[in-house]
Design brief:
Layout: E1 11-16, E2 26-31, E3 36-41, E4 47-53, E5 56-57, E6 60-61, H1 78-81, E7 86-87, E8 89-92, E9 101-103, E10 106-108, E11 120-129, E12 132-144, E13 150-160, E14 165-174, E15 180-182, E16 185-190, E17 200-203, E18 207-210, E19 233-238, E20 243-250, E21 255-262, E22 268-274, E23 281-287, H2 294-297, E24 304-306, E25 311-321, H3 324-332
Antiparallel strand pairs: 1-2, 2-3, 3-4, 4-5, 6-7, 8-16, 9-10, 11-12, 12-13, 13-14, 14-25, 15-24, 16-23, 17-20, 18-19, 19-22, 20-21, 21-25, 22-23
Length: 341
């Protein structure tokens, strides 16, 4: 009775960028009266370019900015990095993710091609479930090559208007006639001011290890100030079943981002900590087969393949909160979590 048009409280709004390398990129804005707003890029795998909570930027905005997929060239490390706006979510895969390399005579660039793939059959809707409006977006991305693979990723995104949870379900189908590797990795990125000196992170997984000598395991939980030329640090969290989570908590803001994921299908939680000046970031990356690349993954017992006609569902979500009791509740479930005052 108090609102004739509910678009003042929540909504879905299609937009199109009109400047620089982003010109022509289709996008969809979602927002709720719980102060959560995000921008999905229809022309970039329906990835999350922007996420704000109570007016605070949560995701990572890199120096390259939003860029149309027409500028993408698969080229080792640099092809992906020249397009890596990051945002709140960059999808990696489908057939390869992590380090670039050549496998069976085929070259694979860093993190694969899917994040530079436009969505087809994009559909938006508002649904009512148990008295709550849920904002829904879906679409299809194909990874296909003549004489090669034919994989389709169907993505469903749901934003509950009465809570601060965005959930994503990806269904990957092998529509070809040959077995294909499955290496999806979800690069969920936190940037300034959410990622800042003193920001800490922890997960419900049982173990954490450093990727290499550049990563200091004693400091994996805490962000330090940015340093010119400092190498990135990567860690891997393992040992969990069912729904698991990773938390990024900023005590200055009193806010936390919780990454939920199904460890049955995404058994490796990769962590990216980057204190390199100008590229300052902290990310959790639920993954099918890690960030070492296809050549390494094919030698591991966790490597996964899709048979012709087979489908696989991968589920994850992002929750935002400034309720300290909720944050403490997550910390109590983790053996290595810091004390939350």
């Amino acid at each position: 009775m108090r609102a004739g048009d509910l678009s003042g409280l929540y909504g879905i709004r299609p937009v199109c960028f009109d400047s620089g390398r982003a010109r022509g990129v289709r996008a969809i804005e979602l927002y709720t009266d719980h102060a959560l707003a995000c921008t999905l890029l229809s022309d970039r795998c329906l990835d999350l370019a922007v996420m704000r909570f109570r007016g605070v930027n949560i995701g990572l905005a890199t120096k390259v900015g939003i860029s149309s997929p027409v500028y993408y060239v698969e080229d080792g490390l640099r092809g992906f990095l020249r397009q890596f706006q990051a945002g709140m979510l960059t999808t990696c895969g489908i057939r390869s993710s992590g380090a670039p390399g050549t496998v069976d005579g085929v070259s694979h660039g860093l993190h694969g091609n899917i994040s530079n793939t436009p969505a087809e059959n994009v559909c938006v809707s508002e649904q009512t479930e148990n008295g709550e409006v849920v904002l829904c977006v879906s679409g299809d991305m194909r990874e296909a090559c003549v004489f090669g693979e034919f994989l389709v990723l169907h993505r469903e995104i749901r934003l509950n208007t009465e809570s601060n949870l965005l959930s994503i379900t990806d269904t990957i189908e092998n529509r070809g006639f040959e077995v294909q590797p499955l290496m999806n990795l979800y690069h969920i990125n936190f940037g300034y001011p959410m990622a800042d000196e003193g920001t800490c992170c922890f997960s419900s997984m049982e173990r954490v290890e450093a990727r290499d000598a550049d990563a200091c395991i004693e400091r994996y939980m805490k962000m330090e100030p940015p340093v010119v030329g400092k190498p990135e640090e990567c860690f891997i969290h393992t040992g969990g079943s069912g729904m698991q989570f990773g938390v990024v908590y900023n005590p200055k803001l009193g806010m936390a981002g919780i990454v939920h994921f199904d460890a049955g299908a995404l058994p490796l939680l990769c962590q990216w900590k980057c204190c390199h000046a100008g590229d300052y970031a902290l990310a959790f990356e639920p993954s099918v087969a890690g960030f070492w690349g296809l050549e390494h993954a094919k030698k591991q017992p966790y490597m996964r393949y899709l048979q012709p006609g087979e489908q696989c569902k991968l589920r994850f979500g992002i929750e935002l909160t400034d309720d300290l009791e909720i944050i403490r509740g997550y910390a109590r479930k983790c053996k290595d979590a810091p004390s939350i005052p």
